[in-house]
TrEMBL record:
InterPro entries: Creatin/AminoP/Spt16_N, Creatinase/aminopeptidase-like, Creatinase_N, Pept_M24, Pept_M24B, Peptidase_M24_C, X-Pro_aminopeptidase_P
Gene Ontology CC annotation, any one: cytoplasm
Superkingdom of origin: Bacteria
The entry's keywords: Aminopeptidase, Hydrolase, Metal-binding, Protease
Residues annotated as domain Peptidase M24: 338-550
Domain Creatinase N-terminal residues, every copy: 35-159
Peptidase M24 C-terminal domain mapped to chain residues: 561-620
Protein name: Aminopeptidase P
Annotated SUPFAM superfamilies: Creatinase/aminopeptidase, Creatinase/prolidase N-terminal domain
Length: 622
């Protein structure tokens, strides 16, 4: 469906605009030193020597409500992952490889020391830097059970004292903190869910029974949304309702959330399958349930505070994986069909953008923001876009080397001839979630650019073609995507792939393809395939498609094997491929993929777009 206000033939970026993302700075790094001094004064007033400030809410969501952005408020760092340890003489901000450059640019490095996680962990740093006898405080609502245990060991090794701080000192200082969100819940269409809530509850109870558990506190809102077939809007880019649920091995579950989020219709439907209660009732209900019972709390998302509630009530905490997580990761037939439909729709929008981009980039006036606004507009023209699945990474030249770069009006850069442009984007549709990265040549690429791009492509193809036995983990597959870079003395400092939800979070556990991916891949899981290479100050390269784990029939096989179906449908820039570095099998895969893109995407395009696509997907040796 076309929006007449934004015609497909638009050749100039001002015709476009972004509705679901902004380009303003969302935090002020210059305020960091003053706020850090105020926090140290507040800690001293309470008799606490140091404090841990995670980038987290009570559910450990990737995207958090504005009132939960403590780390950004305090430091100016706006990345989606990070942790600050404040001691009397130093404040260390820990970030992973995606954010090393971004953090150093956003914070006042005179007040905050940026520490890459590749160099050391917070725990090892504490063992080396925590003064003997110093008390280190942590927030029991925003610290997980695993996090507390790691800190406890490190603090004990440093001969310090770990203290649970009930009243958040950052919140006390943040006087204009935004109110909690109250977005309305909506019911997910049964045809998209593919399974009714009673059936899902039965499977959760079966899992609880196998583990001899009396119940589970579901702390991850993604799990609650999936279990009760609802969606919300409490955080950006992911259709989540902030909610908790308590599922007993026998009896009715309880759902805890703000009543302001519920219409009469939604409340009535939910009341058929659960006791719907106010979010403020959670602690009392958990206290009543826990006495004499064993309760599963998710080690990655459950806050320490709720574990303390269970233990004070005389219950036993069974720390482990949320029983919903594994069920949700294995998509059913309806979810897979929805994801395929969403990716075809998204592929059409992205291909229309790429056709437009080739003409617009040649003008020499196109900016990173122009590209973001144009791509979002093409997606809105589908008539189905409900949000972007994350803020678009639109990095021209050296900005592309910042792995999770977010363009602002202050950093916005004009694309220059001879540069690479890295575009990592995704969309939320009612039937599915997408995530795709394309690296594009602006003008004529250098030999180094083409060589590095082709090494990344070889790894992408190797993972796409992988066939592996049941029980294989992401860590075992990760090497496939890195092998060609490693042979050239190169690497990338992020995982090769993450799980993706069906109409939920663009980053979903428990499986991933990385050095830390120790969960076996199973049929129906959807993951990303996104190797990359980044030359600081010059360019970044990443190629990303989403892939579906599916059975592979092998003649004579003695066990079950899996392979991947590629869901993403969009051309990969042929101008950046050095065919002399590809094998015949790799060229065959590339040509087959492009032929499929042309076959499936082409019929939805107009004449000029079809002609462009035919050239963009022509066989590599043509």
């Amino acid at each position: 469906m076309s929006d007449p206000a934004f015609p497909a033939s638009s050749a100039h970026a001002p015709r476009f605009h972004a509705r679901f993302q902004s380009f303003e700075e969302t935090a002020d790094g210059s305020a960091g030193p003053g706020r850090l001094a105020a926090l140290r004064a507040e800690l001293a007033r309470r008799g606490i020597g140091g404090y841990v400030v995670p980038r987290a809410d009570a559910h450990q969501n990737e995207y958090v409500a504005p009132g939960e952005e403590r780390l950004a408020w305090l430091t100016g760092f706006t990345g989606s992952a990070g942790l600050l340890i404040v001691l009397p003489e130093v404040a260390a901000l820990f970030v992973d490889g995606r954010y090393t450059l971004q953090a150093a640019a956003q914070v006042d490095t005179g007040a905050f020391t940026v520490v890459p996680l590749a160099e050391t962990s917070p725990e090892r740093w504490l063992e080396a830097n925590l003064p003997v006898g110093l008390s280190l405080g942590f927030d029991p609502w925003r610290t997980t059970l695993d996090g507390r245990d790691r800190f406890a060991r490190a603090v004990a090794n440093a001969k310090g004292v770990l203290v649970s701080v009930a009243e958040d000192p950052v919140a006390r200082l943040w006087t204009d903190r935004p109110e909690p969100p109250r977005a309305p819940l909506r019911l997910l269409d049964a045809a998209l869910a593919g399974e009714e809530t009673p059936s899902k509850l039965a499977r959760v109870r079966e899992a609880l029974g196998k583990d001899r558990l009396d119940g589970a506190l579901i702390s991850d809102p993604h799990a609650t949304a999936w279990l009760f077939n609802v969606r919300g809007g409490d955080v950006a880019h992911t259709p989540l309702p902030l909610a908790w649920s308590l599922v007993p091995a026998e009896g009715r579950p309880q759902l805890f959330l703000s009543p302001a989020k519920l219409s009469h219709e939604v409340r009535a439907v939910l009341s058929d399958v659960a006791d719907v209660r106010h979010e403020d009732d959670l602690e009392a209900a958990l206290t009543d349930f826990a006495a004499g019972r064993t309760v599963r709390l998710d080690q990655a998302t459950a806050p320490v505070h709720l574990a303390e509630v269970v233990e004070r009530a005389g219950g036993k905490v069974a720390k482990g994986a949320d029983p919903v997580s594994a069920l949700k990761a294995r998509k059913n037939a309806a979810e897979i069909a929805g994801m395929r439909a969403a990716h075809l729709r998204d592929g059409v929008a992205l291909t229309r953008f790429l056709h437009w981009f080739d003409g617009a980039a040649a003008s020499g006036t196109l900016t990173e923001i122009d590209a973001v606004e144009a791509l979002e507009t093409f997606r809105r023209e589908t008539g189905q876009l409900t949000d972007v699945s994350f803020p678009t990474i639109s990095g021209a030249g050296p900005n592309g080397a910042i792995v999770h770069y977010r363009v602002t009006r202050a950093t916005n850069r004009t694309l220059q001839p001879g540069e690479l442009f890295l575009l990592d984007s995704g969309a939320q549709y009612p039937d599915g979630t997408t995530d795709v990265t394309r690296t594009l040549a602006v003008g004529t690429p250098t030999a180094d650019m083409r060589a590095h791009f082709t090494l990344v492509l070889k790894g992408h193809i190797a993972l796409s073609r992988a066939i592996f036995p049941k029980g294989t983990t992401g860590a075992q597959l990760d090497t496939l995507a890195r092998q060609f870079l490693w042979a050239a003395g190169l690497d990338f400092e992020h995982g090769t792939g993450h799980g993706v939800g069906a109409g939920l979070s663009v980053h979903e556990g428990p499986a991933r393809i990385s050095k830390l991916g120790h969960v076996a891949l199973e049929e129906g899981m959807i993951l990303s395939n996104e190797p990359g290479y980044y030359r600081p100050g010059a360019y970044g390269i990443r190629i990303e498609n989403l892939i579906l784990v599916e059975p592979r029939a092998i003649a004579g096989a003695e066990k079950s094997f899996f392979g991947f179906e590629t869901l993403t449908l969009a051309p990969i820039d042929r101008r950046l491929i050095d065919t002399d570095l590809l094998t015949a099998e790799e060229i065959a895969w590339m040509d087959a993929y492009h032929a499929r893109v042309a076959r499936e995407v082409g019929p939805a395009l107009d004449g000029d777009e079809q002609a462009w696509l035919a050239a963009a997907t022509a066989p590599l040796k043509s």
